[in-house]
Amino acid sequence: MIAQPHEHEHGHGHGHDHGEHGHSHPTGLKGVLYGIFVPHSHDAADSIDDAMEAHSEGIRALKISLVLMLATTVVQAVIVAFSGSVALLADTIHNLSDALTAVPLWIAFVLSRRVATRKFTYGYNRAEDLAGLFIVLMIALSAVIAAYEAIDRMITPRPMENVGLVIAAGIVGFLGNEAVAEYRIRVGRRIGSAALVADGVHARTDGFTSLAVVAGSVGVLLGFPLADPIIGLLISAMIAVLLIGTVRSVGLRLMDGIEPEIVDRAEHALAHAPGVTSVERVRLRWVGHRLHGDAVVRTSATTLEAADRLAAEAEASVQGHMPNVDEMVVRVARVAP
């Protein structure tokens, strides 16, 4: 049966302005930094529409980046043993935490491939969001450890040796981290994974902390030995500041939040389905890197057969416009005479 109309109208018809809910981003230098450290986890033009393919690509990204990060960490750890640099130690600790965060995220992607059960009727995709929370905690922990080591070195100064090696290690750390960050963020955007994008941001912060290590080492060469622990402390502060954007992104997913422009796209797809007079309501939520939702649309059709056909066409329209939508349930309400 066609659902009866509600007493109120929301006015979501074909003339809906799809730009009015889109959130704006900073411009200029602030905009550039925003794009680097707070990238989006959705990219509508390059989405992967097959869930299994998305899971596989996420796992592949984690495997490759894990090997690169472990190699970078080993090189830096060896140089830490010979140099005694606290800034490089802080950077190495952060790189190790970055490598280790790939493990729970890997597990989450594997779980996401399991079929839904009577107990977990939505499947196991939410494990990915929990892994994102773990990544946030690991980033915070690495900042605390780095700050502790830097303060301890300020209180009890120790000489720094093999400064040239430390500079080389910092450059290696930056190149390794930036390669991993770019790869994780690109794949995370393709599959709509906030957790994988967060892990990419984590790697990118590591890369810039490695450059800070280089700056601290140059300060030591110029006769300012406290430059090393001071840079280590600044690294901790920078990690904490950059953590804010990652917390916001992961927290949005855990609270079933959705980017307004994604809702706009769903409304647009529904409004242009044949027979839809207006869009009454749209609800969407991320489950891992896949979307689930429901909607109510209005129509002038009066038969059950026509309503069922319209609902099917509306659902197909949404999935055609938004490849990472796994399920969209559309209910049809008749326009009041």
Describe the model:
Strands 1-2-3 form a three-stranded mixed β-sheet. It has nine helices and three strands. Helix 5 runs antiparallel to helix 6 (194-221) and helix 6 packs antiparallel against helix 7 (227-254). The two termini are 17 Å apart. 64% of the residues lie in helices and 9% in strands.
SSE-based structural type: mainly alpha
Strand order of the largest sheet: 1-2-3
Number of strands: 3
Low-confidence stretches: 1-38, 40-50
Concise summary:
The chain contains 9 helices and 3 strands.
Protein topology:
Layout: H1 28-37, H2 51-83, H3 86-112, H4 126-155, H5 163-191, H6 194-221, H7 227-254, H8 260-271, E1 276-287, E2 290-299, H9 304-321, E3 325-334
Parallel strand pairs: 2-3
Antiparallel strand pairs: 1-2
